What we know:
Elements: E1 2-3, E2 7-9, H1 22-25, H2 29-33, E3 35-42, H3 49-56, H4 70-75, E4 81-89, E5 92-100, H5 111-133, E6 147-152, H6 161-170, E7 176-180, H7 188-204, H8 221-233, E8 236-237, E9 244-247, E10 250-257, E11 260-263, H9 272-281, H10 283-306, H11 310-341
Parallel strand pairs: 2-4, 3-5, 3-6, 6-7, 7-8
Antiparallel strand pairs: 1-4, 4-5, 9-10, 10-11
Helix pairs in contact: 8-9
Guanosine-5'-diphosphate is lined by residues 45-51, 182, 184-185, 239-240, 255.
InterPro entries: G_SEPTIN_dom (IPR030379), P-loop_NTPase (IPR027417), Septin (IPR016491), Septin2 (IPR008113)
Main location: membrane
Keywords: Cell cycle, Cell division, Cell membrane, Cell projection, Cytoplasm, Cytoskeleton, GTP-binding, Membrane, Mitosis, Nucleotide-binding
Amino acid sequence: MSQSGEKVKFSDSAGYVGFANLPNQVHRKSVKKGFEFTLMVVGESGLGKSTLINSLFLTDLYPERYIPGAAEKIERTVQIEASTVEIEERGVKLRLTVVDTPGYGDAINSQDCFKTIIHYIDNQFERYLHDESGLNRRHIIDNRVHCCFYFISPFGHGLKPLDVEFMKALHGKVNIVPVIAKADTLTLKERERLKRRVLDEIAEHGIRIYQLPDADSDEDEEFKEQTRVLKASIPFAVIGSNQLIEVKGKKIRGRLYPWGVVEVENPEHNDFLKLRTMLVTHMQDLQEVTQDLHYENFRSERLKRTGKPVEEEVVDKDRILQQKEAEFRWETPFLSCVACRK
Ligand code: GDP
């Protein structure tokens, strides 16, 4: 895997993300073209977002990240950082963009950070709407945000007001997948209690998180069971690590503590593998919900606001350009005449 365009193949023995079965989900034509997916990660800094992303995609997306001190954080506004990697597994290409939001929740006034994130998501919809109405609509690059992992702190007693406000502000624009960060800091009992609390609060506040689709009745039993387990695991309680540790002669990703090793890819230790399975097996559904629900909402709102379809705006822009050109042609001879007289 590599940053911004460079391609590296994974061999079967190396780490493996598992999206090679994506073609089963979609039309074969897409295989040649590759898949485009954009994942946003949001949550207070220090919750382990970058570590988890690096663990999920077996890469180092943030090699030289600068971490600001507390004084700087007070003044800081949220930033948007998009990193694109191209991954290829067994001939299937994935162009993955991870949108990070460093600075989220750092400043005392959090309202502004919502605005920046909403603005980013809307901008991607706007670009898509514009490209879709243009001449080159076959080759549109889809940068719309298909999924947002929202990181919840393991140290509180449930959702914080900021978590509630953010999810309510964004649930109509993006598929939100809630994630409990640093699950290794919780006992099994505490983990279960926090999960239940988070789900209750999500329901209480009318927050609409991404709903995994039910398995079709003709799917095999294994897939049905997988879907049931994934649904029951939400919010996924995960751990991340950039460290490889040797356990029983095998190198694994984990966190080494005085009392033992917490393994990232061990389903008994945390929900990391479930989160990854959810993402890769439901990538197409996440894209479809983005298209059919969030993008359509944006489109109809946008048309209501401006009162005309974007196609007309493009025509309008063309007309203005033609007028400008005509004016320019009209003015040029005059200018050259002035030049002659000099
Ligand atoms: P970000 O600011 O949300 O991107 O957080 P980072 O990924 O930079 O991680 C912040 C700190 O938390 C680092 O010291 C990580 O080593 C540590 N960390 C990351 N993931 C975990 C985890 O799952 N459990 C624990 N206990 N610490 C973690």
